[in-house]
Design brief:
It is built from no helices and eleven strands. A hairpin with a 6-residue loop joins β4 and β5. Strands 2, 4, 5, 6, 9, 10 and 11 form a seven-stranded mixed beta sheet that branches. A four-stranded antiparallel beta sheet has the order 1-3-8-7, with no helix packed on it. The chain has 118 residues and is mainly β.
């Protein structure tokens, strides 16, 4: 029923850019808070950025000024524009969709790998 599909990951050099997409289906997309999380090997999953149903945004300290989260409700898609990428941005990036009626966890995508390396 519910699917969140991330795309746009890949290998990029330090200082480069990538644009991630999260395409959602099976939910009333416009009412959900959407977020990007990431998890690097041996580290805990951390919040990268979030965007509310009203378009309010929040960013993790490590990505402020470099990443931009956005959403297109007409396409049921959330985006993450990543600029000035650093090796420490290397991680699997996950899409999350949350609505208060779901309870605490929300829905998760399978993730897309971002590798920043020379």
């Amino acid at each position: 029923q519910v699917q969140l599909v991330e795309s746009g990951g890949g290998l990029v050099q330090p200082g480069g850019s990538l644009r991630l997409s999260c395409a959602a289906s099976g939910i009333t997309f416009r009412i959900y808070t959407m977020s990007w999380y990431r998890q690097a090997p041996g580290k805990q999953r951390e919040l990268v950025a979030g965007i509310s149903s009203g378009g309010r945004t929040d960013y993790g300290d490590s990505v402020k000024g470099r990443f931009t989260i956005s959403r297109d409700n007409s396409k049921n898609t959330m985006y993450l524009q990543m600029n000035s990428l650093k090796p420490e941005d290397t991680a699997v990036y996950y899409c999350n969709a949350y609505w208060y009626g779901l309870g605490p966890d929300g829905y998760w995508g399978q993730g897309t790998q971002v590798t920043v390396s020379s």
